[in-house]
Amino acid sequence: MDIKEMAAQHKLLKQWKYEWKPLYRGYTDKTLYINVGSNEVKEKPVPSQMKEKFIGGKGYDLRLLWDATKPDTKWNDPENEIVISSGPIGGITQYSGTGKSIVCTISPQTDIVIDSNVGGFFGPFLKFAGYDALELQGKAQNDVIIYIDGVEHKVEIFEAPAEPLDSHVLGEVLSEMFAKDEADKKNIGIVSTGAAADHSLIGMLNFTFYDPKRKCIRLKQAGRGGIGTVFRDKKIKAIVCKIPGVKGNLNNVADLSAIAERGRRFNKEMRELDDKQCQMRQKGTAHLVEIMNDYDLLPTHNFQYGSHKDADKIHSDVWKSYFTQGVPDGCWIGCNMSCAKGVDKFEIKTGPYKGQKVIVDGPEYETAAGLGSNCGIFDPEYVIEANFYCDTYGICTITWGTTMAFIMECYERGILNKERTGGLELNFGNKDAALELLHQVARGEGFGKLAGMGVNKLKEYFVKEYGADEKFLNDIAMVNKGLEYSQYVSKESLAQQGGYAMTNKGPQHDEAWLIFMDMVNNQIPSFEDKAEALHYFPMFRTWFGLQGLCKLPWNDVEPENNAETDEPAKVPEHVDNYVTIYNAVTGSNIDKDELIRQSERVYNFQRIFNIRRGYGLRKHDAQPYRAAGPVTKEEYLSREERYDKQLKEQVGVDPTKMTLEEKMAALRKYREDRYEQLLDAVYYRRGWNKNGVPTIEHLKKIGMDLPELIEVVKPLQ
Predict the structure, then answer these.
(1) Is pLDDT of 328 > 90?
(2) Beta bridge partners of 216
(3) What is 494-716's CATH number, 3.20.20.150, 3.50.40.10, 3.30.70.3270, 1.10.599.10?
(4) Fewer beta carbons within 10 Å, N or C terminal of the chain?
């Protein structure tokens, strides 16, 4: 069926016209609400309090989602929303990394709010079309496509039965359908998912961007927490946003020259320093693979180990040889990082697209580590193919990598067998079985129906149905708050353990990545030092999600004199860039301290949102022991000299007089006790009580003593 035939099968369910007004200082001050069950479409003004306290991006998402849901709303209730927002800085083109948006919903995996940041065109285009945020609510009866037309200023909802579902095909089809010609494709941003989101709890969303050099549609992912599953539960096939085009100052900023000056300064750093630092323009985030392996931080065999003799097979130079070089690989217009690397004309070897040549976006570090080393697979072409299928099927590669690694360890330890897996031999390293399981998830067949539930529900299932040892599975299942860990081994970094397990949404490195500060450079030795870092960095990184900013330009290239500054981990010159840019966009006059306070308000709001839903307490910040230390004898023995030395020097016991079991027990007691002390220190620094609840005094201090928040926390003071 050709594209015209597909379009002919559309049934227009709703057309709604709106009045467009230019942005003012980064804001439209309107949000767009669409209910795909009732086909209601309306716009809402942004109240002054919402703008003042929630800023944009994740802040707007959380406020709108709170208002739309009840404490007991389930992920698949019609009232659950998917909310998408960029932020006031989002969409400027004079500084790198300004094309991000944040997506929030009640997660199928965690039952709390999940937030996921994503690049691509849709977030900025939504704003340029007239709206600071989009709320999607309700459930359609049949598959629908939502069209936000920022050219004719109308919103249309179509019943759309004929289009394919998988993202790499659907993105091309819809771009062709809604663009007037090839050049117009750059004015379209699309949100979609894929077949796996129909059959799993771990579905993710793809946001497109148009690659003018390759003349094709490419994908960036809002990966965590099953947002794509919610999308498909609502029977949404895609959202399309079209604008007339991007030009110099669509945000209508207060001081364009100040932004341009900082942009030129940063671009000069990229040109002169990137090749000597992280090589983002050549390798993207894949440059981290060998660094993590060298420091025993590369997850291997379900986070049991931190390095492997075959890691050189997925070394960043290997990825560089696959990535097309010399192409401006930015996922937003004007971004000079050029880190969205791609493998061109890769021939697919398995599955429904076997024999086709495709572009694969990535692999990024998380994908190489998750699909590769964590599963004991050191074949780059397997990683590329699995990366492609995760993307087009709509599965998060971080979630899938950790889930697959957990399944493989359960298979090797006899919890699973061929009878239980439907004949799949899911040992570490079995790439053929791993790919087949991925295809089964997309088809909703066989063991894939179980695998698509994610680690937390698999753990519960294996205990209930197979009689697995619950304590052991709780130790080895790398999951917190129902969300799978991202791909760093945190055993030797207490601060990173907190950076994972104390997150609001679950263990994702975008809140705090403190391994090098803590473990390698020993910059935060005391509990108070660690607590200060676990206050500052999550708040600082939260700010990116309020503004529409990517984290990478902050510290993946640094000024040449950064090491000579008082706080090099904060990259103070770049912090000053962000303060200057925010003020130049909005006309405000904040300083770096107010930047943190903006984030504190939203961060504490999200914590209380979790408490409102029955979570968000100290017990929910507990971590699996494998995140902190060796669970098995093999793990201990693999680093016996290190652990014995720690027992002697840190715990104060003589390991030569102890059995292996006694040594493991003593180390565990010590490490678990230190984590509890860390919780106390971090909670105190954040203004929370011993149970992890924000105090009323702290909420007053940061200006978030809203009546609805006080009502939630007051009984827990």
Answers:
(1) no
(2) 211
(3) 1.10.599.10
(4) N
